[in-house]
Design brief:
Chain lengths: 669, 112, 173
C-alpha cells in the first residue's frame, strides 16, 4: 500500500520529466507542473503512512544485477524526508507555471528538476549500497543542471562548478564509507549491514562514521564544507534554490542520520560529541555570514547552513545521549532533529519561493534597493511574514516548537555522568542560544529592510505582484501553522519513526494527555504548542476588544503619528541592510576581519567633498585558508605530474608496456 | 559622602521660595525702562526711538509707546535718556494679551 | 487667534476666549504640568535660562512642572525664537500632536515681534503661526520671569504687567 503510493509518486515524476521536454509551450509547462505536484501529493501521503506504520516495509523491489542490483525498501527514518519531499514537490509544482516562461531552457530545466525529484525519492527508499550511490549521484547531477539554468548570468557557471565539485568530493568519501561497511559486513544490503554492524571493530565503524559525516556534510552544508551554498543558490531560479535548500541539503542530513543511528550499531560517545560540535559551530558561522549579506538569496543560503547546523547538532546530541545509555533522550533528540528538518523544509522553501516572487516583482534581490513592499506587494509580505516568523523561531509557529524542543533536550545534558560530555553539551546549547538570537536579528533585518519602510529605489517603488503565484507559498504557510498548532499529531508520527529507528518507546514521556509535549522525561518541563497558539491569539484579542468596547463616543480628533516634526521623510533617512547589521559586525570584528575601501572625490571637508564611496568586504575565511591552499596544492601536483603527459607516443607505449607487465605480475599472484 | 552634599549642609537651602517670597536681588536683573514724562522732550523721544535696536519704542501722537514685549533690556535708552528713564526692576512681565504689553507714556512736549 | 476649547460661545472677544481657555487649563493643570519646548530659531540663550529652571536654585519640579520630549504627553508648548518659516511644519506638527486642552507660551523678545521683523525667512511674531495664550517677554527672560509666566499660564498667579504704566511722576523735584 505504501509502496503503491511511492510508486505512483515516482511514476508521476518520471512522466513529468518526459512531459517537460515538450515545455516549450505554456500548456505543457502547466501540465508538467501539475503532474509534478500530483507526484508530490502522492509522496506526501505515502510518507505519512510510512511514518505512522513505524517499521520498514518489506523490500518492494529487488533485482539482481552487477554489484548487488536494485533494492528498494522504505524505512521509518526515510519517511520524514519522504514527507518533506512530497511537500516541497507539491508547493514548487504549484509555483512553477507562473514563474517560468515557456522555452527550451525551461524544458530542460523542468526535466532535470523532475529527474532530481525521482532520484531523491530513490535515495530515500534505497535498500542497498549500489542503489543508494547510483541514486545519490543522479540526484547530484540532475540538481547541478538546475543551477545552470541561466548559464549566461555571472555566477551560474561558478555555482554549478562548486556544487558539482564539492558534491563529487563528498560522494567519493561517502562511497568509501559505504564500501568500508559493506566489506566489513560482507553484504551490500543496508538492513543486513545494520544487523551485522555490531560485530565490526569500533575502529572501522568510527572511520566509516567520520567519512560519512564529512561526505554527507558536503551535501548538507556543514561548515567548512558549505561554500557551494551561497554561490549556487543565487544562480539557480527561485524554485531551484527552494528545492536545493528545502530538500537536497536534507538528504545530506538523512545520510548523517542513517550512519549515525541506523547503520553503525552502538555509537561511540565521541561520534555524537563531534557531530554536535560541528553542528553548533556550523549554526553560528552560518548566521554570522548571513547577517552580512545584502543579496537576499545568499542570505537565505547562509541561513540554510545555520539551520542544518541546528539539525545536525540535535542529531549529534541524540547520538551522545544514546551512547551513554540515555536511550529515551537519544530517541527524543533524533525525533526533534527530524521535526526541525521538516519545519525548515517548509519555511525555507516558502522563503525562497517568495524571494523569487519578490525578485520578479521588484526587479532586484539587493536588500539595499528594496523597501516599502508591504504597500505594493501585500500578499507576498504576509506570506513571507509567516515564513520569517517560522524561521526566526518565534512562537507560536513551527520553528519555535522544534527549536524549543532541541533546547529542552540539550538542557538535560546533566543526565550524562562525566564532565567532558556535559560541558560540551552545555557549550553547544550556549552556541545555539547565541545563534537563535542572531537569527531573530538577521530575519528582522531581511524582512524589515525589504518589506517595510519607504522604497529605496524606483524599482521598489514600482514593484507589483500581479501574476504572482500564491497557492504554492500559501500552502507552505498553512503547513507552517499546521506543523505548529498540530504539533501533538506530528509528534505522534515522529514518535513512531523514532521507535522504528531506535526501538525506544517514548509515547508516555513525550505527549501527555492534555496536548502537552514533554521532553522524554515527565519531571523536567512541558509545554503545549496548541494551547500556546490559542493563548497568543486570545491575548492579542483582549486589547482589541477593550478598544472596541471603550472607544470614545464623543468628538475625537485624528492627527498624524508624531514623527519628531520631520518636514519630509526621505528614503535615505532609513537604515540600510549594512548599517542595521553594524553592531554585529563590530562585535564579531575578529571573525569578519572586514576590508574597508573608502574613495573620496576630493579631500575637502564634509559637505564639499563630493561623493564618497564606502565598500566593505567580509573576509571569506574558508575560501582563503582552506580551499585556496588545497587548490594550490593540487595545481602544484598537477604541474609536477605534467611531464608524464609529454605527447610523445613512444613514452605512452612505454607506459602501456609497464602497465601490462605489472598487471601480469599482480594477476599471477 | 559627596562633597556637594557637605557643602550644601553648610550653606543651607538655596532654592528660591518664589512665588511665596520674591528674592531681593530680582530687582537688579535687567528690566524694561521706567520713564519720567517730565523730562521727555519731543526731541529726546525721537532720539530714543532711533536708538532702540528692537523697535520697542515708537512715537504715537502725544505718547511714547513702549512695547514691553519687544524690549530686550539692552539699556541704550537708559543711557541716552539720563534723568528721563530708570530701570523699572520689574521682572514679572507675563501677559495673556499682547495689547497689555504696549504701554503709553505721555510726552512732556505734548503732540508734535 | 482661534482654536478655542469646546465650550466657547460665539461672541467672545479673543481676549475672553483666551481667558476662558486658561481658566479651563488652570482647572486641569494647576497641580502638575508637562512642558514641551520648541526652538524656532532662537540664539539659545532663552534655552539656557529654561535649562536653569531645573537647577537646584529655581527647581521647577517643586511647583509640579516637568519637561517632556513627547508632545503627546505635553500640556504646554513653550516656544522660543522668532518663528523661522523653516520651522513651520515642525511647529504645526508638534502643536497638532498635543492633546486638548493645551496652552502655548511665547518666551523671549523674539516671538513677541522684537528684534526681527517679518520677512522672507521669519514670521517675526509667533501668533502668525500658532494661537498664543501667554506672552513672556525678556531677552532672555530670567528663570524667575519664566516661573512667573508658567504660573500665570496655569492660573496660580495673577498677571501683574497689565496694572503697570512704566512711567512715574518726577519725585526728585
Amino acid at each position: 500500500m505504501i509502496a503503491g503510493w511511492l510508486w505512483s509518486a515516482a511514476a508521476c515524476w518520471a512522466a513529468a520529466a518526459a512531459l517537460a521536454l515538450g515545455a516549450s509551450r505554456r500548456v505543457s509547462l502547466t501540465l508538467t507542473a501539475w503532474v509534478s505536484s500530483a507526484g508530490g501529493l502522492a509522496a506526501l501521503v505515502g510518507g505519512v503512512l510510512l511514518a505512522l506504520r513505524g517499521t520498514a516495509t518489506g523490500t518492494f523491489a529487488s533485482s539482481s544485477g552487477p554489484v548487488g542490483g536494485l533494492v528498494l525498501r522504505a524505512t521509518p527514518l526515510a519517511s520524514a524526508f519522504v514527507v518533506l519531499l512530497g511537500l516541497v514537490a507539491l508547493a514548487i509544482g504549484l509555483f512553477s507555471p507562473h514563474y517560468h516562461k515557456p522555452g527550451t531552457g525551461t524544458a530542460i530545466y523542468l526535466s532535470a528538476y523532475n529527474g532530481a525529484l525521482l532520484a531523491a525519492l530513490a535515495v530515500l527508499v534505497a535498500g542497498n549500497v549500489t542503489t543508494f550511490l547510483v541514486a545519490w549521484e543522479s540526484m547530484t547531477l540532475a540538481s547541478g543542471l538546475l543551477v545552470l539554468r541561466y548559464r549566461s548570468q555571472q555566477g551560474a557557471a561558478r555555482g554549478c562548478l562548486l556544487y558539482l565539485a564539492l558534491g563529487e568530493v563528498g560522494f567519493a568519501l561517502v562511497v568509501v564509507a559505504f564500501v568500508l561497511m559493506a566489506t566489513q559486513c560482507h553484504s551490500l544490503d543496508l538492513a543486513t549491514i545494520a544487523t551485522r554492524a555490531a560485530s565490526v571493530p569500533v575502529a572501522w565503524r568510527s572511520a566509516a562514521f567520520v567519512l560519512a559525516l564529512v561526505g554527507f556534510g558536503f551535501k548538507a552544508g556543514l561548515v567548512p564544507f558549505h561554500i557551494w551554498l551561497p554561490v549556487a543558490h543565487p544562480a539557480a531560479p527561485a524554485d531551484g534554490s527552494a528545492f536545493l535548500s528545502g530538500l537536497v541539503v536534507k538528504l545530506g542530513v538523512y545520510g548523517v542520520a542513517l550512519f549515525g543511528f541506523q547503520l553503525l550499531g552502538r555509537q561511540a560517545p565521541w561520534w555524537g560529541l563531534l557531530t554536535m560540535s560541528v553542528g553548533a559551530l556550523s549554526a553560528l558561522v552560518g548566521i554570522l555570514y548571513a547577517m552580512m549579506e545584502r543579496d537576499l538569496k545568499r542570505f537565505l543560503a547562509y541561513s540554510t547552513v545555520e539551520n542544518v547546523g541546528v539539525i545536525v547538532a540535535s542529531l549529534g546530541a541524540g547520538m551522545t545521549f544514546a551512547s551513554y545509555g540515555q536511550r529515551p533522550l537519544g530517541a527524543f533528540l533524533l525525533l526533534v532533529a527530524l521535526y526541525h528538518a521538516v519545519n525548515h523544509g517548509a519555511y525555507k522553501t516558502l522563503l525562497f519561493l517568495e524571494a523569487g516572487a519578490l525578485e520578479h516583482g521588484a526587479g532586484t534581490r539587493d536588500l539595499d534597493q528594496l523597501g516599502g513592499l508591504v504597500r505594493t506587494m501585500p500578499a507576498t509580505t504576509v506570506i513571507s511574514l509567516v515564513g520569517v516568523l517560522g524561521i526566526a523561531a518565534l512562537p507560536p509557529l513551527n520553528g519555535f516548537v522544534s527549536e524549543w524542543l532541541v533546547f529542552q533536550g540539550l538542557f538535560q545534558g546533566f543526565r550524562i555522568p562525566g564532565h567532558v560530555p556535559g560541558v560540551l553539551i552545555v557549550l553547544a546549547a550556549a552556541v545555539l542560544g547565541l545563534t537563535a538570537g542572531l537569527v531573530v536579528m538577521a530575519f528582522a533585518r531581511a524582512f524589515g529592510i525589504a518589506f517595510l519602510g519607504m522604497p529605496r529605489t524606483r524599482h521598489a517603488a514600482h514593484a507589483s505582484e500581479k501574476g504572482q503565484p500564491l497557492l504554492g507559498p500559501g500552502l507552505l504557510a498553512a503547513a507552517c501553522a499546521a506543523l505548529a498548532v498540530g504539533a501533538p499529531a506530528v509528534l505522534v508520527a515522529l514518535d513512531d519513526i523514532a521507535r522504528g529507528v531506535t526501538g525506544v518507546e517514548l509515547r508516555p514521556d513525550l505527549l501527555a494527555r492534555d496536548l502537552t509535549v514533554l521532553p522524554a522525561h515527565t519531571a523536567f518541563s512541558g509545554f503545549s504548542p496548541t494551547y500556546l497558539a490559542t493563548f497568543m491569539v486570545g491575548v492579542a484579542a483582549v486589547p482589541l476588544l477593550i478598544y472596541l468596547a471603550g472607544r470614545p463616543r464623543g468628538a475625537s480628533r485624528s492627527v498624524p503619528v508624531w514623527d519628531g516634526g520631520i518636514v519630509e521623510f526621505k528614503p535615505r533617512m532609513q537604515y540600510t541592510a549594512t548599517t542595521f547589521a553594524n553592531p554585529v559586525r563590530v562585535i564579531f570584528q575578529r571573525f569578519y576581519s572586514p576590508t574597508v575601501h573608502v574613495d573620496r572625490a576630493s579631500e575637502d571637508p564634509a559637505g564639499l567633498s563630493g561623493p564618497v564611496h564606502y565598500r566593505m568586504q567580509v573576509l571569506p575565511l574558508f575560501e582563503k585558508y582552506l580551499y585556496s591552499p588545497v587548490v594550490w596544492l593540487f595545481r602544484r601536483l598537477a604541474r609536477l605530474l605534467q611531464p608524464l603527459q609529454s605527447g610523445d607516443v613512444n613514452w605512452y607505449l612505454l607506459y602501456i608496456l609497464v602497465a601490462v607487465v605489472a598487471a601480469y605480475f599482480i594477476a599471477a599472484r | 559622602m559627596s562633597i556637594w552634599f557637605l557643602r550644601g549642609l553648610r550653606r543651607g537651602v538655596v532654592t528660591t521660595r518664589y512665588p511665596a517670597v520674591t528674592d531681593r536681588w530680582a530687582a537688579q536683573l535687567p528690566s524694561p525702562p521706567l520713564f519720567v514724562p517730565a523730562h521727555l522732550t519731543a526731541e529726546l523721544v525721537e532720539r530714543l526711538v532711533a536708538i532702540c535696536p528692537s523697535k520697542a519704542l515708537a512715537r504715537e501722537g502725544a505718547y511714547l509707546v513702549l512695547d514691553v514685549g519687544a524690549c530686550t533690556a539692552c539699556g541704550r535708552c537708559l543711557k541716552a535718556a539720563g534723568p528721563a528713564a530708570r530701570p523699572s526692576g520689574v521682572f514679572e512681565l507675563a501677559a495673556t494679551s499682547r495689547e497689555r504689553l504696549l504701554k503709553r507714556i505721555p510726552v512732556k512736549g505734548g503732540p508734535p | 487667534m482661534n482654536a478655542v476649547g469646546p465650550s466657547s460661545d460665539v461672541g467672545d472677544t479673543p481676549e475672553e476666549a483666551v481667558a476662558a481657555r486658561l481658566k479651563q487649563a488652570a482647572a486641569m493643570f494647576g497641580r502638575s504640568l508637562h512642558i514641551r519646548t520648541v526652538d524656532t530659531g532662537s540664539c539659545a540663550v532663552c534655552e539656557s535660562e529654561i535649562r536653569l529652571l531645573l537647577a537646584p536654585h529655581y527647581d521647577l519640579h517643586r511647583l509640579g512642572f516637568f519637561f517632556t520630549p513627547a508632545p503627546r504627553h505635553a500640556d504646554l508648548l513653550m516656544v522660543t525664537g522668532p518663528a523661522v518659516r523653516a520651522m513651520d511644519v515642525a511647529l504645526q506638527k508638534t502643536y497638532a500632536a498635543m492633546p486638548e486642552p493645551k496652552v502655548v507660551i511665547a518666551v523671549g523678545a523674539c516671538p513677541l515681534g522684537g528684534v526681527y521683523a517679518e520677512d522672507a525667512l521669519v514670521h517675526g511674531s509667533l501668533d502668525k503661526v500658532l494661537p498664543v495664550d501667554v506672552w513672556a517677554p525678556g531677552c532672555p527672560p530670567s528663570p524667575l520671569a519664566l516661573l512667573h509666566g508658567l504660573l500665570v499660564a496655569v492660573g496660580r498667579l495673577a498677571e501683574k504687567v497689565g496694572l503697570l504704566n512704566f512711567w512715574e511722576e518726577d519725585v526728585a523735584r
